[in-house]
Design goal:
Elements lengths: L1 E7 L2 E9 L2 H14 L6 E11 L3 H9 L3 H8 E7 L8 H8 L4 E5 L4 H8 L4 E3 L2 E3 L12
Parallel strand pairs: 2-3, 3-4, 4-5
Antiparallel strand pairs: 1-2, 6-7
Helix pairs in contact: 1-2, 1-3
Length: 143
């Protein structure tokens, strides 16, 4: 089961629960495509709750034939991926190869609020650690 909600003109929330098959994933892509039709620079909060991995070969084959997929990824600038199982957060390592133009960061469910802030460009605070966004360094004179 999935739910796609348009939060505002720049953000979607996607929640996936349980098992999805190839048809479900194609419907999910279509729903996201339709909801972002008039959007640019989209930020997506993508939550996996008790998600079961579908058969990867079938899903990849179905997705490769989905013409809206590339257009959808062109609309998305940033994606916060919220999941608790380590294998689900592997997308953090795979996305530079699969989706090099997408800025993606994985978060645990306990850090959902930090994920929302990161989508907006705010510094991230996880477990008391503040990680500022990249900024210019100032040089100081030696001596």
């Amino acid at each position: 089961m999935f739910l796609v909600t348009r939060i505002d003109d720049r953000r979607l929330d996607v929640r996936v629960q349980g098992a999805l098959d190839g048809d479900d994933i194609m419907h999910l892509v279509q729903a996201m495509f339709d909801l972002t039709a008039d959007m640019t620079h989209v930020k997506v909060l993508y939550r996996l709750d008790d998600f079961s991995l579908p058969a990867p070969i079938a899903v990849l084959g179905d997705l490769a034939r989905q013409p809206q997929l590339l257009a959808l990824f062109d609309r998305i600038d940033r994606c916060a991926f919220v999941a608790d199982k380590p294998w689900q957060r592997l997308i953090d390592r795979l996305h530079p190869v699969l989706l090099p133009n997408l800025e993606l960061k994985c978060f645990a469910h306990a850090d959902t609020e930090a994920a929302k802030r990161w989508l907006q460009g705010a510094p991230i605070a996880l477990e008391g650690l503040v990680i500022p966004l990249p900024c210019a360094r100032t040089a100081r004179p030696l001596g």
